[in-house]
Structure formats: structure tokens, C-alpha cells
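dumping this here before i forget
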Amino acid sequence: MVFIMKIGAQLYSVRDYTKTLDDFSETLKKIADIGYSTVQVSGTCAYPAQWLKEELEKCGLSCVLTHIKAQKLLEETKTVAEEHKIFGCKYVGIGSIPGSFKNGMTDYMSFVKNFMAVSKYLSDEGLYFMYHNHNAEFSKSDNGEIFLKRLAEDFPAKLLGFTLDTYWVQAGGGDVAWWIRNLNGRVPCVHLKDMAFKDGSVRMAPVGEGNMNFDSIINACADAGTEHVLVEQDDCYGEDPFECLKRSYKYLCTMGLS
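structure:
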């Protein structure tokens, strides 16, 4: 089967190689050389929007998603929108909820209150606010619902999408394919990372080298209207992260993606 969705690289995987603009530029070239045509910009050094636009164009890449710090999203919403338009990125993401649910409902209600206006502004500008989950979103709120479900209910679909992270859904005890389908139309971008069991512990792995059912996951993405599957590996356990991204890319190509 040939899928319409594109394979991208989440640059957080190679964050140690994007600490200066020169290194960032070289990293984009390496990502393009692997075969990726799209990236998510996250975990990098600060960059001028016009610089990023030009560097992406040099490499034949496009940025399809970002992760922006919560404070900047709240205090510089207009600037964030303007910058994303410069480098042609529709999806404006946040990497985690401020507080990471350490304070449970307090963190959750604060997020809804503070970021509803952000999501509305971005929507009015033709952009789409994207929320990235970890496993904490699978803990339960005061009414017994898991927080991820509450987020989907409290934010209208047109105002909040989800960068569903396959590894963290599994780590939270969720059924990855079920959640992708449950958020149909709200998961234009999905993070792909595998989960393996090695040396007595659970760890992240290149896609296809762990135990997750990626046939089921990719089919669910196709059913849910996913446009971009972004390879991410937070920890490569001493391996070259570019090599890990390369192996993930090659595996996904064998599944009919490109």
C-alpha cells in the first residue's frame, strides 16, 4: 500500500547538533541526505524566521511543525504566528503542558484557561495549535476521565490538534491505533518512535526495531487523516542519532511511505 502521508524527522532527536546556527544548517543538510523531505523544528538554538526559511529551501526541506516554549506562545502570540508564516509552517506546537501534571487539575485548568486564547488567535491567522502528549496525560482527572480525553473535549477540534506520540501513548497504557482513530481529523502530525525491551529495561528504539505494531499504527494514521509522521528518538543510548533516524526512515519506506 502507498500512503499519502510524508515521513519527517523531529529535530529534537538531533538537538545536540543544532546548538549553533552553523551546526543547525549542517544538520538540515544531513537530514535531507538521509531522504527526509520534512522536519519538525524543536529543541534547536534560537533562529531568525527568514534564516530558517532560506536554510530549508537550500536543502529542499519544509518545516511542517514546531514546538514553541509556553512562555513565548503566551506572551508573543502574534510574533509566533508571523514567524511561522515566514517559513511556511501551519502547525504550531507545544511540547508539554506547563507543570507536566505534577499538580494535576491545577496544571490542567491553568493550561485550558491560558491557552484557549492562544489557540483562537492562531486559528484566526490560518494556523493550528498542536498539543504533544507524554504519558502523564493518561492519568485521570477529578471526574475520572484521563486528561487527554478531557483536552479533546474542552478544546473545540478546530482550535486544538494533537501530535500524538506513539511511544508515550504506549507508556501511558493506551492503545496507540485506537487513540489515533479516536482523534480522527485532529492528528495531522504523529510522532513515531518504537518501544523495545533490552537489558532488563524498556527503552526507545528506531522505528521497526522494537515491539510496537506499526502496521496497525500507520493504517490508523491513514484512516485518521494524518499528513505527517515524524520520526523521533529522544534517547539513542550512545548510538549516532543520524544513523538511528536513517534506519527508521528506511523501515518506513519499506511500508510504502516516502
